Amino acid sequence: MHLYLVRHPRPIVAANTCYGRTDLAVAAEELASAHASLLPVLPRNAMVFSSPLRRCMDLSESLAQTLGCAKPTYDERLAEMHFGDWEMRTWDDIPRTAIDAWSNDMVEYQPGGGESVMQVAQRVRAFRDELTELQIEHAIVICHAGIIRLLAACEHGLSVPEMALYAAQKPHKIRYGELLVVDC
Description:
Blueprint: E1 2-7, H1 28-38, E2 47-50, H2 54-67, E3 73-74, H3 96-104, H4 117-133, E4 138-143, H5 145-154, H6 160-169, E5 179-183
Parallel strand pairs: 1-4, 2-3, 2-4
Antiparallel strand pairs: 1-5
Helix pairs in contact: 1-2, 4-5, 4-6, 5-6
Pfam family, one: His_Phos_1
Organism: Herminiimonas glaciei
InterPro entries: His_Pase_superF_clade-1, His_PPase_superfam, PGM_Phosphatase
């Protein structure tokens, strides 16, 4: 299977804001730009899966329609990590002690009382396992940088705790609207 992992376009949010599970819109020009750059490199008639957050849904719907794919399948397991009461706060407003606690336990700590990276890794692995069972040639997944890192970690044959650690320790450089192709 060829897995086409796409990060959503830049959402409408102030810089330096923690916004994991918060449902944010994308400006029309950002959506159009991502759509135009992805269209030539994505397969036609593939299955499309998407996070149910708007910043992913809008892109998945427009791409699916243009590529002649069935309507996207929205899956909660592809949603970004929930940062609890850190959501929509600037990183400067989050107490340094809390950020330090997270950096000391990147896998199990639940930032803002939300989800841990381990919890997110468990749901991403469950999604990936079900995707494998479908035995399809191409799958397009529109989601978030953290989810992309975890899906990529699945391809290294790592256990769920190893996936979580791999994703937590590896800084990402996945740009908005970027595509990562993984051959499974």
